[in-house]
TrEMBL record:
GO terms for molecular function: mRNA binding. The keyword Coiled coil does not apply. Its main location: nucleus. This is Pre-mRNA cleavage factor Im 25 kDa subunit. Residues 1-22 are annotated as: Disordered. Keywords: mRNA processing, Nucleus, RNA-binding. Belongs to the Nudix hydrolase family. CPSF5 subfamily.
Length: 182
């Protein structure tokens, strides 16, 4: 199973620079501009970590490297950028996204996953998700929790690569963030 994380800010990315700063600009909007409801709980496939590892090994044996995408969605709250995370268990949070279907592009897959997980209804064709550039990719050389921001040279067949939420601020440092007042 593999995870290719294309992270996109839920904001407008502008390519112009200001005052000699060559960073791209990202416009973020207040949390109050968005509607939040609730959806049916998505059933967690694994009860324990060992169950998850067994499932990952089985999927890897059947399908090989799988790609996943996850979104970095920023909102403004109290004049400060906040990252939108999904709570999947009492103390487990993750970026919205998931595995791609075979042959599906990163952008189409991310839009499908965002619609499934965040739109009022899964077939909501009115939601137009703006997907920005890929912020980073991480590799897992085995079915462990340790991720690397590079493919280790001794690894011939990577098992998975995916995001690390704690690294998002560093990845966003290449952007100039503009807080928009509606």
């Amino acid at each position: 199973m593999g995870d290719d994380t294309g992270a996109a800010a839920a904001a407008t990315v502008n390519d112009h620079s200001s005052s000699g700063d060559h960073r791209k600009e990202v416009d973020i909007y207040p949390l109050s501009c968005y509607y939040f409801g609730s959806k049916e709980t998505i059933v967690f496939k694994d009860e324990t970590l060992s169950d998850r590892i067994k499932r990952m090994k089985s999927n890897y044996a059947a399908h090989g490297l799988r790609t996943s995408v996850e979104a970095v969605i920023l909102v403004e709250l109290f004049k400060h950028p906040h990252l939108l995370l999904l709570q999947v268990r009492n103390s487990i949070f993750k970026l919205p996204g998931g595995r791609l279907r075979p042959g599906e592009s990163d952008i189409d897959g991310l839009r499908r996953k965002l619609s499934r997980k965040l739109s009022a209804s899964e077939d909501d064709s009115e939601t137009e998700w703006e997907v920005g550039e890929c912020l980073g990719m991480w590799w897992r050389h085995d079915f462990e929790t340790l991720l690397y921001p590079y493919l280790p040279p001794n690894v011939k067949k990577p098992k998975t690569y995916g995001p690390i939420i704690s690294g998002v601020p560093q990845l966003l440092s290449k952007f100039s963030i503009n807080i928009i007042d509606p």
